[in-house]
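Duplicate of earlier report; Ribose-5-phosphate isomerase B input re-posted below.
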Amino acid sequence: MKIYIGSDHRGFYLKDKVEEYLKGRGYDVENIGPDNYNPEDDFPEFAQKATVKIKTSDDQDPRAILMCGGAQGMGMAANRFKGIRASVVWDTEEAKWTRNDNDSNVLCLPARIFDKPEAKLDLYNVLDTWLETPFSGATRFIRRNKQIDEV
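Output:
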């Protein structure tokens, strides 16, 4: 599984934690930016980079993890692209169901929650749950995902 990670300025330091953790777990991670902290950058640029990477990847199960202040902006920007199912996730329960039911291929993390020192364990549990939960493949979920792409 190839994982693309990106953020805006608000998620910049969280992105570093996520990258370090994923690489330590043996995942193939590509940091799509930003490379430097810039308080003037804009999240849509990085959401677009991630979705283009997913859509042009040769990997069988490419995914992205995007971070910004509340994660909503990243999710909205990423979901503009056909075939992208971005989910804003703040706990393991949401991480599980968005993979199982929706076959989420983009995880959007709110830095306001996960960049706090006391949230470190929660962050890693959310990442592991989202990455390890398979899509159920249930007929109704396949049908619904297809309907999303037809909008």
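The chain has one domain: 2-150.

Merging into the original ticket.
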